[in-house]
Queue: 2 jobs
Job 1
Amino acid sequence: MMIRLFSIFAAVSFFMLSTAVAQEQESEEESSENEPEIVTTAPAPAQSLNPDISVIGDFAWRDDTMFSFREAELGLQAVVDPYARADFFVAFPGPGEGETPELEEGYLTILRMPYDLQAKLGFFRPKFGKLNLTHPPENRFADLEPNVVVNFLGDEGLADAGIEFSALLPNPFGLYTELSAGLFNGDNEASFHGGTSMKPVSLLHLKNFIDLTDATSMEFGASYAQGVNDAEGNLKTKLTGLDFQVKWRHPVFSQYNSRVLQGEWLQSRRDVEDGSKAGRDGFFVFFQEQIERRAFLGLRYDESEFPLAPVREKAGSIIASFYPSEFSLYRLQYKHTREADGTKSNLWLFQTTFTLGPHRPHAF
Amino acid sequence: MKLKSKTLALCLITLFLTTAVFSDKKIKVVTTTTDLASIVQAIGGNKVSVESIGRGYQNPHAIEAKPSHILKLQKADMFVKVGLELETWSRLLTESARNPKIMPGATGYVDGSEGCKILDIPQGKVDRSMGDVHPQGNPHYWLDPLNGKIIAGNISKALSKISPENKEHFEQNRAKFTEQIDSGLERWNKQMAPYKGTKIVTYHRSWPNFTSRFGLKVVDYVEPKPGIPPSPGHLKSLIEMMTKEGVKLILMEPFYSQNTAKSVAQKAGAKVLVLPPSVGGVKDVKDYIGLFDYNIGQVVKALSD
């Protein structure tokens, strides 16, 4: 009897709650209908309806290949309507770097959906690990990507046509926790071959972020991707990843002193044609200290197998970066590699990137 | 008996939760700077709960948009920004917050700069050879108390749209805030009167509204262009000019390194005055009016010594 009474009481209470929420939404719509639009003091110039246009040039020198203009990346970014925004990035490869301009990303982000979801549709870099979201020229390395990313996700990382949903998960700890789930074609030179098999790659990513102090923050995440690696769609590949980043910025002099420690581990388990299964992994760890307003010093360690080869390469890099302004940089990297067969090599790389126009800041 | 007590407790908890919805809930406001937060608090009073993403001692240009900020914005009823491209990082946050109430054009989205007197609007072709230039004008407009009144008006208007039943409360607070600024201006102008026309140098181009309002004349900058560190050649010219013109004060914010400014001041026979451009920039500055009380006091002390 008491349980029944409680049930009726709870039902009435929740009915009243939902009515209050509905009334709140109605009054917001009414007030927005009755009130005039916000008037600015000056008319907005017509060109403000154009997208933000930016170009990033990436020029490099390596002591094993000499000079190369790796790419010019054209960015076109704007709000589409009150509900969505669109971003396009087209890479124009330099001579000898590729033949035709390539769409690096072109996607729509739907900002307002039921249940606080957001969605991305198009051709884009999905949330897999942390580094995959950034275009290689904007990474902190002159060789663009750590060995494990190149070996398991390809030279440019993972980018594919598909759809991705993301939701912020409520939790009692006040932690930023975002769950992303996506479906993609599965065309990736290193790990997947979903295109002709019509079997998409499914991805999951969990991102957690916490402010340890005002000055220090930590992010850690987990990723999972599953797809096929043959044209017939019979052989599976499963990728698992863990990532972390700890960032410290001086609470007052943040322009002058900061540190970042970042790393990712990736594991691939794939079916092989001969019926066997190949389990391989790799990781990198990177540390960077800002030693002066415009100068940064970094160290990176790479250790990685290859998707189908049970051999492991190791490399260590020292990276020095100088930013005359936030729109240009000069970077020198020395990389010592011990190949899987034991041979050692040394590589010097120099990189400069330069940006025209407003380039939207990347997600933290 | 035990079951009855548990059920009663559950009913009471449910009643409490339901009541919480119907009780006066505060308007949650998130601002980009502490100055805006202070003005929101002055206008909103006990009808708002407000927090700022930036801290008063931080450079608002250089705040890093973090996921934890998104959580604050997700629950906000109102978002107030300085605008004029001071916070290019803020769009990343509002677009990720999944909160239609605070998107541009929504009732809860407030650009504090609307209607304010904006200085240093570049004329002609604008490009990055001018340094970290703001094409729409200098965004440090809150450092003119008269703009503070306009910001308060923008905030009051938005709060009244969100909570029309409290419109009178907001307007009364706005009137009180306006009076405080007017009486503050009277005493600040009086304090600064003896120093009207005094030539000073500032580190960054953050102070045109403040210096223009209170009669100081900025004759040069330690940064040759906004955001560009000074070269030895520029510093040499600066020292020579300061010596020749009798410039005795370099004004700068707490988040810039003082080494260069101190070196210039020493060679030019001047002094460096570090002033907070925002509420909370030093411990003693607790609100918007207090920011001017403190800064004017410090300037007067520095110029009279």
Job 2
Amino acid sequence: MTIPAPTTPSLAPSDLLATVRRLAPIELAAYALTGVMFVLLFAKPATLMFDAWWNDPNSGHGLLLAPLSLWFAYKSGIAKDARPQPVLGIAILALAVVSRYAADLAAELFIMRGSMLLALAGLVVWYGGIRQLLHWWLPFVLTALSIPIPEVILNTVALPLQFTASKIGASLLAWRKIPVLLTGNVIRIPGQELFVAEACSGLRSLTALISLGVLLGALFLKHWPTRLLLVAITIPIAILINGFRVFLTGFLVLFVSPEMGQGFMHTGEGMVTFGGAFLLTGLVTWMFGYLERLPSFLRGRTDNSVSVA
Amino acid sequence: MIQSLKNFAPALVLLTGVSLISGVREQYTMKSPVPMKAVQSHFANENGKDIVIGDEERRIAGMSDYSMRVFGADSSPAFTVYVGYYERQVQGKTIHSPKNCLPGAGWDILTSARIPAPSGTASATVNRVLLSNKGSRALVYYWYQGRGRIEASEYVVKWNLLRDAAVLGRTEEALVRIVVPLPRGERGVVQSNSDPIVLRADSLARTVAAELEGAVQRVLPKAPSA
């Protein structure tokens, strides 16, 4: 998606202010009350979500995605053909409220946080219809990807992927002639046992990389098949990068210091390897963008050669 | 006027939500009346020695308290007993199932079954799992115990958790696990449930489990009244 130029009515601060000034007092009161009720109902899930972004390394990408989502929504503006759909909007909002209540009863965080996004979607549909919701598909998808997935689900999906990453890491260590024994996700090298604590954790940074794939695809690619392919490719990239992280940790622990497998050093290695994953995903995006442009480039060259002839 | 009042519809729906959640009960943190280490340390004529779990492992597992003991000779332990207690579970941060963590530590699950609890408690079940890790085998019995129940099925445990959180505001629970390492037989590594070595291990695990269920019950908070 190339971010379209804002269409009227726009979200520019000056335009918004002008729009607010034109509202009747009763309409203004309705908007204000809706805002207040939204904050009261979703303050707790919002706080819990921010807490997870701040403290959980697997959810930290939310700190980047949430502001980006707001930015994209602002830049996209209001769709030209946006029309309120009150009945559908209220239905979605009601579903969000029921979900919020049920999640609170059962202390279920994922649905609690998801209900907040659902309520936002309901409000968008109420005020601007489904077309406006679709116009803002990227901010909503990015926000959805920033909601921490329950460990039970994440580990079920990501644990088998981590097994593959561990095998890759152990193979790399063996290639460097380092004696290594792999049992599940636990790596045993001379004098050390690594990743014991993470043995039943799934692939690190999987959701962060998938989110990155969605973001880069939306920004730099035009066609849905290439965008979906880019998102799919982030999964093997995550596996490879985690495999390399396993290798790097084992290598540094053996040849530099056992402390390289713990604490800050270990976290630092994780950040460096994630940076590598970011670059690799960027490189793949660039290649796909080149492939997307290739047909029109070739057509242009063919037309030129015909005209020259 | 009516059109203007219709603008308040979203606020009204959200206000309904605010009213509903204001009546939701608080979730309680149920500290155990005694530490998990108070679980008896003598089973099947063996005395147990405490094992300390590392801080990082403990942080990832997330238990509030635990007891882990090895029974038998140091060189060839007869069995280990683990009790991990969670004073409050928030969905998304619940007990890690051994079905995930054991493969993560390199164990392949050869057979898995749910059996009646060896103590004979009505409607109580435990998991019986035969594991393999390269040349080694082990028999594991594990179950989830708390809020007056002993349950094996992860799905039933999750459902009970949601229901008790909503109705009682209580989510405390313990994961209880017995691991019996299996020695090699005369014909090499044991292969099946009918192998005499496995049958002896089953008998040992059942004996320990029958006593352990009651021992754990004594250190957990009282079951909620029906």
